[in-house]
């Protein structure tokens, strides 16, 4: 499905739009807020930092992630100059790259110029470490069921 075919509507009450990248970043921030309260690794990475990370597109969409002494917040747009700016060629590419969760996908995007980086490159390392903490750990029993379902689907549909 082409994500950019979805009409983009601004939802002012939530300070978010229906743009796929905006929704993805807002979801990432919600997970980061949860980790700020529950994950010792996340708390260790962010407890003494004041950072603004902006994720944007070449078309002008932007959302900033604000990390302030372990607290996480977000704001849409270019409100204040960010310490680090990650610029994707479009929303679809940004969502697909971020959801892969693979640092090599970012590096490939930097090589082919579909991703641009502005600002302090040390923040790219911090952002990469934070992104690796985002996926929740599944209990062993659930993981076993997921693997059984994958095997079943491969047998049934040949993929």
Structure described in brief:
With 159 residues, this protein is α+β, with helices and mostly antiparallel strands. Helix content is 47%, strand content 22%.
| Architecture (CATH level 2) name | 2-Layer Sandwich
Number of helices: 6
Level-1 CATH class name: Alpha Beta
Order of helices and strands: EEHHEEEEHHEHH
Q: How many E strands?
A: 7
Major sheet description: 5 strands, mixed
Number of domains: 1
Distance between the termini: 18 Å
Give the percentage of residues in beta strands.
15-25%
Describe this structure in words.
This protein has helices spanning 20-38, 40-46, 91-100, 103-111, 122-133, 140-157, and strands spanning 10-11, 16-17, 50-57, 62-68, 71-76, 84-88, 115-119. Helix 1 crosses helix 2 (40-46) and helix 1 packs parallel to helix 3. Helices cover 47% and strands 22% of the residues. The longest helix is centred in the N-terminal third of the chain and has 19 residues, at 20-38. Strand 4 and strand 5 form a beta hairpin. It has a single domain (3-157), classed as Nonspecific Lipid-transfer Protein, Chain A, CATH 3.30.1050.
């Amino acid at each position: 499905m082409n994500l950019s075919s979805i009409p983009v509507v601004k939802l002012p009450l939530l300070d978010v739009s229906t743009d796929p990248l905006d929704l993805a970043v807002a979801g990432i921030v919600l997970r980061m807020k949860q980790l700020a309260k529950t994950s010792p690794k996340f708390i260790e990475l962010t407890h003494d930092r004041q950072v603004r990370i902006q994720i944007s597109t070449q078309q002008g969409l932007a959302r900033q992630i604000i990390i302030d002494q372990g607290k996480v917040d977000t704001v849409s747009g270019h409100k204040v100059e960010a310490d680090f700016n990650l610029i994707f060629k479009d929303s679809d590419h940004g969502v697909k790259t971020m959801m892969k969760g693979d640092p090599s996908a970012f590096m490939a995007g930097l090589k082919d110029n579909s991703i641009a980086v502005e600002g302090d490159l040390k923040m790219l390392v911090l952002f990469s470490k934070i992104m690796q903490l985002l996926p929740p750990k599944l209990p062993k029993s659930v993981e076993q069921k997921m693997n059984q379902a994958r095997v079943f689907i491969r047998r049934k549909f040949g993929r």
